[in-house]
Every structure is written in structure tokens, then in C-alpha cells.
Design brief:
about 475 residues, alpha+beta, Glutamine Phosphoribosylpyrophosphate, subunit 1, domain 1, Rossmann fold, seven-stranded antiparallel beta sheet, 19 helices, about 35% helix, elongated
């Protein structure tokens, strides 16, 4: 996604087992709370104990479903998914949940993350071309399930057999006609939380989704854990050997909603702490601190608090615009930033501005934004970034697998100052970021180049794509 100003995240998942509740409507609301994690497609699958019903399509949650759709999605358990396509094209066939029929058993799967071994997994399954990660996973599960059709715990046991063949990042919600299962990869790259709801259970990518449906947060699904919910209640299984937890640190920087809690830490408070630390590491002589909405707001507040410089909202966000439009000419592409953000000249004119953003990935949008502030009258622009330089590709669920597109991988800070047209540039240090997000193990691969798992197959696939 070369025209996207931020790294795209690979989806939100939601699951619920709640007899007597309006399950399809609760999933719909849960997906609304997770819409920020994927805007390209949405889907819901439900079961009444005998029949699994699935509705999915391209578009936002509110565009895909209407009241008649939800009424047709009858049942006491179900899963939902919002998708951002980091692997596989944005097509209906790649929308999730993915589905398979194995005899009389129907299964559906929703996935957040990226596998790093899709090629070898496809070869193992005898499939030409890797397809989407989710299709490969549901196919691997279905193959094992085919041998267990008469087993009442067939899906659970099929998952236990299939999961060790998956490598990389995956938080999953999986269902058949009678049970809901949540799985988190051994490192826990992507979040997954568990909540209770009047005798039922809810799984979601973020706690904010639990809040919206009235569920009570119980705990996080632990890295390497599989939780199974059925008529007998909730039980926990460990399909993987222990591994070091490595939650993606960008969940705190950008992906997660500010009202969500990760590892016991509120995301908004962590972002505020990043800005506070950033002001200590990179002070500026300026008149106002201006955030880039929305994810830059808490960090800008923290920067203003620590520096004593006045906080000012000087960029108005159009809430009805999603990703920057891709237009046929550079002139029209450059206008894309104004579709999303417009400066308030009365606030900016003659002022020395500290502009706080959460990250710089490819840099083109940041460059346009800084130029726009100048045109609106800012006398100086001092750019401060509440994360370290983004230098390395991610293979665990962000659409930044091509290092040649990453600005900080191609330029040092002085070169970026000139390219972006700013008076100064300061990044939060890696230690400053880790101190801000609290205790726990984190994946910092995109910032440090330290990959927690073997990514050689993913790297080789990328190299082949560039030479093919």
C-alpha cells in the first residue's frame, strides 16, 4: 500500500458464545468497535447448534450488514471479522470468516496476523500458490477434521494437530456448530482478550469491543493458549511449547484504540507517557504543540505537559474519509491529505510549531502535511515522533514487508529534515518507548531489526516477488 501514510494492520476478530442473547447483533457491535483494525471487508458467521450461517462482503461493517442480514444470522454462538489485506488481494474470496464443510461439520475461522510460512504450508497441503493465510489455516484444520468426523471434540483435536504447522503471528477465532475456540500464537504477537457476559463468553482483539457489548473483561488469552467454549463451559489448552511473549509494540503506538487496555496498561496513558518522554529527549523552542489526529493526540498532550508549551488543536480531521484516495495524477494524490486533515490558519499563523505524530513510515504524507502547515502560516515546524525510526519490514501482520519503501531505512535524520521540509526532527528512543508501554515482552522488529522468529521464508518470498 505505497500511498498509505501509516502501516496497515491485519484485522480484528470477535467471537461470542451466549445462549439466549442476540448473538448476531452483539457481533455486529463488536465489529464496529474493531472497525479501525480493518476497513476492506467484514463478515459474521453464527450457529444455532445445527446450521452454520455466514454473511461476508467487501466494505465497512455498516455497509455489509443490515437488519435483514442480522435477523438471518440466527444462533447462540458466532464469530466476526474485519479485514485489512496485508496478504492476498482485497477480493470477496479473501473476506473472512473463512469457511469449510467437512461432512456434517461446518467450520469458520477469523484470523488476525500473518503467517511467515505460507509457501511451505501450501506445499504440505498440496495447494499450488499460497493463497490467503486464513484459507490455508482453515484448509489445514479441515484436513485433520476429516479424520475425526465422529469425534465429538473433532474441531478441538483437529486444531491441536494443525496449529504446530503454523508459523508467525495469529490470533484466531474458530467455530463449528457447537463450540467457539480462541487461539493465540506462542509469542502472542497480536492481542486477544476474554470477557464474560451473563453466563456466556466473548473473545475480541481489544477490550474496547468488550465494553461496547457489555461484557466484563476477565483476562487476556495468553500467548500459546487455546480456549474452548461449549455447553460444558470454558477450558484452556496449551498446544505449543512455551515461548517468550512478544506483543507487537505498535499496538501501543498506533493500532489499538486509546480506550483499550493491553497487558494491564491503558493505551491512551501509554501514548501520553511516550510524549512526556519525547519532550525530555527532544525539547524544542516553540509556541504551540500540535497533534496529528487521532493517534498523535495523547502523545502531544504528554509533550505539552512535560515541556510547558501550550497544547493547540490546529488540524481538523474529516471523520468521513478513510484511507487517502489513490488518484491517477500526482497533483490529485497530493490533495489526498486535505481530504483527511485541514489546518486552522488562525492558530498556526506566525507560530513556531511542535508537530507530534506517532510514526513516519513512507514519509510522503508527512511531507505534504508539513508543507501544508507552512502554507497555513507556521513560522517554524519542529517534527517530533513518539516512536523510534521505522526501518525494518514487518512479516507479522503489517503491510510494510518492502524495506525500500521505508523512509528511515533510506535516509538519516538530517536527510529526512531536508526531505520533509522541517526545522528539526526528533524520534523517541527505543528504550523510551519500552519504558512508556510498561512491563512485558514486545516485538520491536520493525524498529530494531530483531525478529523473534525465523522469517527466512517470508524474506525469500519478498525477494522472489521483486525479481519475478
Amino acid at each position: 500500500m505505497p500511498d498509505s501514510p501509516k502501516p496497515g494492520e491485519a484485522c480484528g476478530v470477535f467471537g461470542i458464545y451466549a445462549p439466549g442473547k442476540p448473538v448476531s447483533h452483539l457481533i455486529y457491535y463488536g465489529l464496529f468497535a474493531l472497525q479501525h483494525r480493518g476497513q476492506e471487508s467484514a463478515g459474521i458467521a453464527t450457529s444455532d447448534g445445527e446450521t452454520l450461517t455466514l454473511v461476508k462482503d467487501l466494505g465497512l461493517v455498516s455497509h455489509v450488514f443490515d437488519e435483514s442480514d442480522l435477523a438471518a444470522l440466527d444462533g447462540h454462538l458466532g464469530i466476526g471479522h474485519t479485514r485489512y489485506s496485508t496478504t492476498g488481494s482485497n477480493s470477496w474470496s479473501n473476506a473472512q470468516p473463512a469457511h469449510r464443510q467437512v461432512g456434517h461439520i461446518s467450520i469458520a475461522l477469523g484470523h488476525n496476523g500473518n503467517l511467515t510460512n505460507p509457501g511451505s504450508l501450501a506445499a504440505e497441503l498440496g495447494i499450488k500458490g499460497s493463497g490467503s493465510d486464513s484459507d490455508l489455516m482453515v484448509e489445514a484444520i479441515a484436513r485433520r477434521l476429516d479424520d475425526r468426523r465422529s469425534d465429538d471434540r473433532g474441531l478441538e483435536m483437529a486444531l491441536m494437530e494443525a496449529l504446530p504447522s503454523f508459523r508467525g503471528a495469529f490470533s484466531l477465532v474458530v467455530m463449528d456448530q457447537g463450540r467457539l475456540i480462541g487461539v493465540r500464537d506462542p509469542h502472542g504477537f497480536r492481542p486477544l482478550v476474554l470477557g464474560s457476559l451473563d453466563g456466556g463468553w466473548v473473545l475480541a482483539s481489544e477490550t474496547a469491543a468488550l465494553d461496547l457489548v457489555g461484557a466484563t473483561f476477565q483476562r487476556e488469552v495468553e500467548p500459546g493458549e487455546m480456549v474452548v467454549v461449549d455447553a460444558q463451559g470454558l477450558r484452556s489448552v496449551r498446544p505449543f511449547p512455551p515461548a517468550e511473549p512478544r506483543l507487537c509494540v505498535f499496538e501501543f503506538v498506533y493500532f489499538a484504540r486509546p480506550d483499550s487496555v493491553l497487558g494491564g496498561t491503558n493505551v491512551a496513558m501509554a501514548r501520553r507517557a511516550m510524549g512526556f518522554r519525547l519532550a525530555e529527549e527532544h525539547p524544542a523552542d516553540a509556541d504551540i504543540v500540535v497533534p496529528v489526529p487521532e493517534s498523535g493526540i495523547p502523545a502531544a498532550q504528554g509533550y505539552a505537559q512535560r515541556s510547558g508549551i501550550a497544547y493547540a488543536d490546529a488540524l481538523v480531521k474529516n471523520r468521513y474519509v478513510g484511507r487517502t484516495f489513490i488518484e491517477p495524477t500526482q497533483e490529485l494524490r497530493d490533495r489526498g491529505i486535505r481530504l483527511k486533515l485541514n489546518p486552522i490558519s488562525a492558530v498556526l499563523s506566525g507560530r513556531r510549531v511542535v508537530l507530534v505524530d506517532d510514526s513516519i513510515v513512507r514519509g510522503s504524507t508527512t511531507r505534504q502535511l508539513c508543507r501544508m502547515l507552512r502554507e497555513a502560516g507556521a513560522s517554524e515546524v519542529h517534527l517530533r515522533v513518539s516512536s523510534p525510526p521505522y526501518r525494518w519490514p514487518c512479516f507479522y501482520g503489517m503491510d510494510t514487508s518492502d524495506r525500500s519503501q521505508l523512509l528511515a531505512a533510506r535516509m538519516d535524520v538530517d536527510e529526512m529534515v531536508e526531505y520533509l521540509g522541517v526545522d528539526s526532527l526528533g524520534y523517541l528512543s527505543l528504550q523510551g518507548l519500552l519504558d512508556s508501554v510498561g512491563p512485558g515482552g514486545f516485538c520491536t522488529a520493525c524498529l530494531s531489526g530483531d525478529y523473534p522468529t525465523d522469517v527466512s521464508e517470508a524474506v525469500g518470498k519478498l525477494a522472489l516477488e521483486h525479481t519475478g
